[in-house]
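Standup notes, structure subgroup. Blocker cleared on the adenosine-5'-triphosphate input:
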Amino acid sequence: MNWDDTAPTTDDADDRLVGASADGEDQAVEAALRPKSLDEFVGQERVREQLDLVLKAALARGATADHVLLSGSPGLGKTTLSMIIAAEMGAPIRITSGPAIQHAGDLAAILSSLQEGEVLFLDEIHRMSRPAEEMLYMAMEDFRVDVIVGKGPGATAIPLELPPFTLVGATTRAGLLPPPLRDRFGFTAHMEFYAPSELERVIHRSAQLLDVAIDTDGAAEIAGRSRGTPRIANRLLRRVRDYAQVKADGRITREIAATALGVYEVDGRGLDRLDRAVLQALLKLFAGGPVGLSTLAVAVGEERETVEEVAEPFLVREGLLARTPRGRVATPAAWAHLGLVPPGQGPGGGGQQGLFGT
Ligand SMILES: Nc1ncnc2c1ncn2[C@@H]1O[C@H](COP(=O)(O)OP(=O)(O)OP(=O)(O)O)[C@@H](O)[C@H]1O
Ligand SMILES: [Mg+2]
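Run returned:
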C-alpha cells in the first residue's frame, strides 16, 4: 500500500511517556476528558473564533456547515474538535479513517447511508486510497457519487444522490493532501502547539474531572513538560497522580510533580531519556557538531529513523538542535539546557572557536 509509505517507520514514539500519539490507556480515558463544546475547548483562539462563525452562520441559514479540514500534530485536539463540530450543529457524527477505506465501494457505502446534516469525520484523510479520494471529490462538491456496477466493458456508473453532509477531515500531514482535495474544504483549521498557560488550563480541567487535587504550581510544572500537547499533559497528569497517591497525600504540588516526572525521566522541558541521549552525544562526543545523522545514531545506539523521527522533531522545535546541510548542530540553548559549556568558552578557553569549530 504505497500511500502508507510516509507513515513513521518506528513504533517507539507510541511507547514513550512524552510520545504524542495515543496509546491504549489514553484511548480509554480520553473520551472522558474530551471537551464537549467550543466554549470548553481550551486555546486555539483563532481556530475557535473562525469555526464559531462558520457553524453559527450555517445554523442561522438552516444549512449544513461547510466541509472542514483540521490539520495539526498528534494530540492537539482534532478528533475532539470534530466531535464538537457535530455537537454544536446538533448533528450526529460518523467516524471513520483513511486507512479503513480501502476501496471506493467502502466509501460509497458510508456516504450513501449518511443522514441529512450528518458530520462525517474522516481521520488520517491523507491515507485514503486514490480511487476513494476521487469519489470523495464529487461527493464533497456535488453531493453525488457514481457507483460502478459490474466489471470490464459492461460496467456502468449509476449516479447516486447524497443528502447534504459536512465532511470533517483530519490530518497530521496537510502537505500530503492533493490540492484538489484540499481545495474542496470550505474551511481549514491549522492547530498550533499550546502555550504553557493553555496547558495549565487543560490540566486543571482534567484534574477536576479525574477528581485529583492539584495546585497552580503543580499544574504549571506539568504544563512545562508537556511539549505543547494536551494529550501529553493529560498523560503526565495521570502519572503524577499515581506518584502523589503512593508517595504523598494525593495532592499534586510543584515538588510532587517535579519529583514524579523525574522518576519517569521527563525533564523540566519535556525531554525524555532518548532526547537527552541524543543531545548529550552531540555535545559531549561531537563538540556540538556538525555531525551526520548516521554517526549520531550509532553514538546513541539507536536506529537512524528513531533519532530522526522520534527525537529530532521536538529538539528542533525547541531550538535545541538544528539540521544543517553539513549535519546536526547543537544550539547555545542545548549547551545551557544540559548545563555544559561549549568548547572554547569555558574558563581559560580564551574565546577561541571550539575544537571542531570552523
Ligand atoms: N483544546 C483542548 N482542550 C482540552 N483538552 C484537549 C484539547 N485538545 C485536546 N485535548 C485533549 O487531548 C486529548 C487528545 O486530543 P485528540 O484525540 O482530539 O487529538 P488528535 O489531534 O485527534 O490526535 P491524533 O492526531 O493522534 O488523532 C483528548 O483527551 C482531549 O481531551
Ligand atoms: Mg484523533
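Discussed briefly. The longest strand covers residues 144-149.
Next: hand off to the docking folks.
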